[in-house]
Every structure is written in C-alpha cells, then in structure tokens.
Amino acid sequence: MNDFDWAAMADLLELEGETHSPYVRQALRELEHLTPRRVMDIGSGPGVTACRLAAVFPDAEVVAVDGSPELLARAEARAGRLGVRLRTRVAGFPEGLADLAAEAGPADLVWSGQVVHHVGDQQDALHRLAGLLAPGGVLAIVEGGLPPRWLPRDLGFGRPGLQDRLDAVQADRFNRMRAELPGSVAVVEDWPGMLRTAGLTEVRSRTFLVDHPAPLPDGPRASVRRQLERYRTVLGELLDAEDLTTLDRLLDPDAPEGVDRRTDLFLLTAKTVHFGQRPGLSGGS
How many structural domains are present in the chain? Predict the structure, then answer.
C-alpha cells in the first residue's frame, strides 16, 4: 500500500488502536445481536480490534488478516496476554482476499478499519470484502469521521491555529497518496452508496466519539506524541518555518509547554462505521 512501512509503525498503530478503542466498543454494541461462527478482521494490524472481536464473540472463530507477518505476530502476542482465541492469516489486501475466501470459508462478520482508502479502486475493494460474507453476513468498514483535536487554538506561542494548518497539509498529502496508488479510481466517497453497489443491503452508518479530556493519562498522551512525531517526519518539509519551530517546541521533552507536560492536552476525534448485510439467511445473523 503506497509507501507505508506498516511493520515499522507497529508501536504507533498499537498505541493508536488502544487510544481509539472507545469507538470500537461502541460500534461492536451495534453487532451484539449477532451469533457469528466466523469473524474476520481485514487489515488487522497489531490486533487491537481483532482481540476485542474475540472477546465480544468468544464462541466464534476470529481471524486477524494482514499483509505483515510482523504485525500478526503482535496480534498473537496480544491475544495471549488477554487470554482470547485468535487465529492469524497473512494475506495482501485486496488481492489476497479471493484465496482467503476459498481457503478459510465465508465469514458471518467482516470488519475492516481504515484500510479501503489505501487501495486504488475502493469500489472493487468493497466488492471483494463483500465476497467474504456468508449469506446474511455483515460487513463493517471504518472510513471517515473527524480529524483528531489535541491542543487549544492558541498554544501561547507560535501562530494560533496550528492544527487547522496541519489538517490542510495532511489532506493534501492524503489526496496525493490516493492519486498515486496503482489503479487509482476517482469515486464519490458515498460509503453507504458504495456498499449498496457492492450488493449489500440494510446499509447504515454510525459515528462514534473518542473523547479523552484533559489532563491526558499516559497512554493517550503517548499516542498524541507519536502522532505529532509522525507529522513532523512526513509533513515537515511542507510546513513553514514558524510552524516547524512550534512543532519542535511541542515535542521537546524538557519544555514545560510541550505535549509531555501540558495539562491542557486532550484527545477528541470521531470515527464513522458503515454497516451492510449480504442478502440471504445465515445462522450468524
């Protein structure tokens, strides 16, 4: 998927997954009526959500699927620590899904969090995800929502509105990433409409809040630091000198106004989950 080294981002991915877990818990309450026999987490990364799926559906075979063996090793270790049953399967996305469906069998629930937008042809990816479902099975994809907020508009130094400018630069970078993906296809990102085009019914969307108020505990605070460090690395050349200086000051571990010590640091974001069902009857629905 483009220029992302997912294994190198393992710590960030796991920490972010833990910090954003409130939205996963809320989303899975929407699915508690299901009695799935097989659940797949496609693009599972280090397995934070996959392990939560295994805890919510302890009688199901839960399979974490990812293209990175290193991340799946983390998922297995996490499942061991938490005492949940989890299988792992290496498969590329989306090209590996056909073999996965043939070898593993259909799933009653497929979850895929913030993975589809890394594929050039997003509609094709949704068709392939829908193809993993048994009749009556449910697909849940996480796409969209609101960008995170961590800091007051005026930090007390630098130009006010740093996060708005980071959002704008990140949006431009995301648009370039999408355009440069192999086989990139422009599409109106109407996710419910795209799920219907993939043949799913009973389509609906829900947005869930992640709200960690100030002062942040260590875990969410570390997540904010890691995300700002990544912004500094990948967006640094796109920011002006004043914003770079501000970002470096925020990341200075010895600065009282830095993210490690600020008492006003918070984390607020929202994630949108889109649900759709494959027509037919299933014992998992």
Answer: 1
Residue 32 lies inside a defined structural domain of this protein: yes
Residues of the chain with pLDDT under 50: 1-2, 283, 285
> Which pair of structure tokens corresponds to residue 185?
């296809």
Q: Domain of 21: which CATH number?
A: 3.40.50.150
Give me the phi and psi of 162, to 5 degrees please. Answer: -55, -45
Residue 233 falls within a domain, yes or no? yes
Cα(191)–Cα(135) distance, rounded to whole angstroms? Answer: 21
Structure tokens at 280: 């037919």
Report pLDDT for 103: 87
Domain membership flag for residue 1: no
φ/ψ of residue 85, rounded to 5: -85, 125
Instruction: Give DSSP secondary structure letters for 180-234.
Output: HSTT-------HHHHHHHTT-EEEEEEEEEEEEPSSPPHHHHHHHHHHHHHHHHH
Can you tell me whether residue 26 is helix, strand or coil? helix
Are the C-beta atoms of residues 270 and 25 closer than 8 Å to each other? no
Residue 132 lies in a domain: yes
